[in-house]
Amino acid sequence: MEEFLTLKDHVYRYIAEQIRDGSLAPGKKINENSISEKLNISRTPVREALIQLSSEGLLENVPRKGFIIKHLNEEEAKEIYLIIGIMDGLAVSLACPFITAQAVKDMEFYITSMDIAIDTANFSMYHKLQEEFHNVYLSLCPNSSLVNLLTQLKKKFLRRSYVAEPQSNMKDILLVTNDEHREIVRLIKESDTAGLEKYLREVHWNVQKAYMETL
Fold it and tell me: Long-range contacts of range 127-134, CB-CB < 8 Å, 24 or more positions apart?
């Protein structure tokens, strides 16, 4: 079934993509009129999308200035990494009994595809593929409240750091991360829920990696 998107949803995606690809940098003010004119819509859905992005912590509504792209400092990023690591580990461990052989194949397909994206320096494609990889088990997690909270937290890292990283460095970083995806699948195959929780918390979302979200 095709997802129905309101005008506000379209504006939300448009702004989110600009934040993701670095077109809108931290500290930059959102020009509501410019977006209205570019998308040929009224300011109402633009304002609604900005309010939603603000509630999710991506924008800051500054009095007499308007909506500004929020800067995430390293300490904040570390705090969020710690929480996500715990929640993501719990989510995958709860999903384990429901992960089918086909779901495992899907995750392995995304891992192979990510290798290709890294090799060709298609980092935007890598980002989409790694989201799909994690969504395989998140979609099978029986605790919808946990998944919703996790999704909201991950949105704080919408601006991907690899946009600004040197290509060679980023390839090395992402190859290591994709090897972590392989380890996650291995642990899933073994139904090692305790191992999954520990690995997601201490390795995949290790707080020492949080600096990458603030570049």
Answer: 127/20, 127/160, 127/162, 130/177, 130/181, 133/107, 133/181, 134/88
Q: Which two tokens stand for residue 72?
A: 């995430």
Whole-model pTM: value is 0.81
Q: Where are the domains of the chain?
A: 7-69, 74-214
Beta pairing partners, 110: none
pLDDT digits (tens, 9 = 90+) for 124-172: 899 889 999 999 999 999 999 999 999 988 888 765 544 445 566 889 9
Cα(182)–Cα(175) distance, rounded to whole angstroms?
A: 11
Tokens of 207: 């707080």
* CATH T-level fold of 7-69: Arc Repressor Mutant, subunit A (1.10.10)
Nearest to 68 by CA among 29, 24, 17: 29
* Token pair of 25 as six digits: 């940098």
